[in-house]
Amino acid sequence: MDRKTGMRLGDVLKNFGTYLFTALFFFPIYWLLMASFVGLRDMVAHGFPLVPPSFTLESYRLFFKHPDVWNWLWNSIVVALVSTGISLVLSIPAAYALARLRFRGRELMGRLILFTYIVPSVLLLVPVFLVMTKLKLTNTLQGLILTHVTFSLPFCIWMLRGFFASIPSDLEDAGRVDGCSRLGVISRIVLPVSGPGIAAAATFTFTLSWQEYLFAFTLMSKQNMKTLPVAIAGFPAEVMDQVLWANMMASSVIATLPVFILFLYLEKYFVQGLTAGAVKG
Amino acid sequence: MARVVLENVTKRFGSVVAVNNASLEIKDKEFVVLVGPSGCGKSTTLRMIAGLEEISEGNIYIGDQLVNDIPPKDRDIAMVFQNYALYPHMDVYNNMAFGLKLRKVPKDEIDARVRQAAKMLGIEELLGRRPKALSGGQRQRVAVGRAIVREPQVFLMDEPLSNLDAKLRVQMRTELVKLHQRLQTTMIYVTHDQTEAMTMGDRIVVMKDAVIQQVGEPLEIYDNPDNVFVAGFIGSPAMNFMEARVGYDEGFYLEVDCHKLKVPPEVEARLASLGDYKDRKVIFGIRPEDIKDEPESFGEGCSINAVVDVTEPMGSEIYVYFTLGNAELVARVPATSGVKAGKSHPFSFNMNKLHVFDIETEKAIR
Question: What pLDDT shows up at residue A141?
Fold first, then answer.
């Protein structure tokens, strides 16, 4: 086998591996999508077919007929957007301070923040529930937003800290010499340059909040206060005799769409943001 | 335009002293080059003048104003950074206009100044481009342009040419000197490259280990270095150093590896304190161009024979490396010289140009 043939064979194997893994990852999504188009009768007859015998939007129609569906959508959107906003507003100055300012305890503070991220969230379920009950924040959007922010904030700070640290400090010095104050440097130079990092942090926080189940399930017991993931999970049990699984699949597709669109637009920023600061540029 | 004065300026980072008690007066319209090896404190000194580093002790004046507590934006300085520090999210025009916009200069004036500077630097056609679409040389010009439009009292330049290739560096070197002549503004320039320092500066400030070693005009420093470090740092190839014993036999001589090299009477007169070193060891320094590849070129008692180790033809001249005792020496000889590696050859030292340093303090003996 000569070198050229060897390389070609390597390429084929590499490509095959790529396709195989892509197929493995996409299969559940494909199945979800197909199952959402299966009619009630076909579902009873065929279960979950890979290719539906006939396509119907029946499940989607039924989903949107549910009286609380717009409440769930609204709850999910508000919680995800506000959590993202608060996380960014708090993490940007915190990350900048940890990346750039010299103060006593900086390293310790950085490590403590990382530590809070490392603690498995399930361990905090009961304490968080008790705190929220005491604060009378169960079954409120504020309570869930606060909970989501506590989980997304450490990650955002760590990610943005790496990003800010990777920005050459000369750039900020140039800004200061050109006429900016410290705050001016942040708003006019650091933030515009950090677009990819901020986009990545925002995408992460939005996705985390949008798909979070455990705390939303624990804190939001009222039907009209549920978020989409909790509502979807409750669907089959609630109307089992009428709708079955296809409806849940349709609602899952609807729940996945916003995040899918978000990733489609921000994918390049997201990857750039995650890798920034990994190497000294 | 303004003079810059440093009065006993010290900078400490924790227990590390980055600049130690530096005093310096830079005159109005002067081009001063701070030169020294990495970590000598030259960039820190520049950054203190810019206001980007706080001063631990001492005072800095720009013009007649004490600027210790004045932020960089209010010091009326402009700075060119080593990596150019162009704002990546702005095009060239806005990079250059940024400082003026912050100072609320009228739009028409900003436009006029940016276009004039762009014309001066030959970057008019680049005004709409982002920094990532520029070559290293173009970025460097934009960085200089950004400083020019501000029309500051003082220009600060922190190794602005070190990221350019050798050819472009030489070209930009000349352009910066011309620019200084045209703008007639005080310029403080930091470099580790002694050639840049020699060719660009009205005066050179040589630094080492956080301390200013010598301040003077390029040729003054080249001809009369204050110590071994300055003598070795300024000049390429570097000055040759060898241990020698000061002897006296109807006149002073330096004994190097059993060779007695006579100190001419006029040099004796220049080195008044040489007598104090009689029968003691000193460091004898001689520049490569003051060694000739012929015997007795500079009169009697200045020649030695040595085996040539390596020759480096440079085109117009040859660098000849040979060993004398423990010292490895280099001589610059004409390209027509017949010196060959591995063969013994006579060399003569121009003892009128000798340098002698105290072996302990390494300071020049004068």
Answer: 95
CB contact under 8 A, B73 and A177: yes
Mean pLDDT confidence for B10-32? 96
Q: Which two tokens stand for residue B194?
A: 């002694």
**Confidence bin at A200 (pLDDT 50/70/90):** confident
- Picking from A100, A169, A177 by the largest number of B CB atoms within 10 A of its own CB, the best residue to mutate is A177
Q: B215, B33 in Cβ contact below 8 A?
A: no
Instruction: Give the ipTM.
Output: 0.86
Question: Has residue A281 got a pLDDT over 50?
Answer: no
- Percent of all residues in chain B with a pLDDT value above 90, rounded to a whole number: 81
The tally of domains found in chain A comes to: 2
- Quick check: A130 contacting B, CB < 8 Å? no
Residue type, A181: S
The mean predicted confidence, pLDDT, of chain A is 85
Is the CB of A173 less than 8 angstroms away from the CB of B150?
no
Does any CB of chain B come closer than 8 Å to the CB of residue A248?
no
Q: Is residue A129 part of a domain?
A: yes
CA dist B169 and B175 (Å) reads 10
Position A280 in a domain: no
Helix (H, G, I), strand (E, B) or coil at B55: coil
Helices (H), ranges, A119-168 = 125-134, 141-166
DSSP string, B260-289: EEEPPHHHHHH-GGGGGGTTSEEEEEE-GG
Question: Where along chain B do its domains lie?
Answer: 4-233, 240-358
Query: Looking at domain B4-233, which CATH architecture does it have?
Result: 3-Layer(aba) Sandwich (3.40)
Note the pLDDT tens digit of each residue in B274-305.
Answer: 889 999 999 999 999 999 988 877 777 788 99
**Quick check: B72 and A176 CB within 8 A?**
yes
**Same domain for A52 and A147?**
no
Number of residues that this document lists for chain B: 366
* A174/B50 touch (CB, cutoff 8 Å), yes or no: no
The verdict on a CB contact (< 8 Å) between A176 and B89 is: no
Q: Which of A58, A77, A96 is a domain's end point?
A: A58
Is A281 a member of any domain? no
One domain, residues A18 and A123: no
Q: Is residue A127 part of a domain?
A: yes
With bands split at pLDDT 50, 70 and 90, how would you rate the model's confidence at A278? very low
- CB-based contact, A173 to chain B, within 8 Å: yes
Q: Which chain B residues touch A191 with a CB distance below 8 Å?
A: none
Q: Closest partner residue to A180 among B52, B78, B102, by Cβ?
A: B102
* Of A260, A238, A239, A235, the residue nearest A249 (C-alpha): A235
CATH 3.40.440.10 for domain B240-358: no
Give the number of other CB atoms < 10 A from CB of residue A60: 18
> Between chains, do A189 and B87 touch, taking CB under 8 Å as contact?
yes
Q: Are strands B281-286 and B355-358 parallel, antiparallel or unpaired?
A: antiparallel
Which residues of chain A neighbour B163 with C-beta distances below 8 Å? none
Instruction: Quote the domain boundaries for residue A257.
Output: 59-275
Reported confidence tier of residue A280, pLDDT bands at 50, 70, 90 = very low
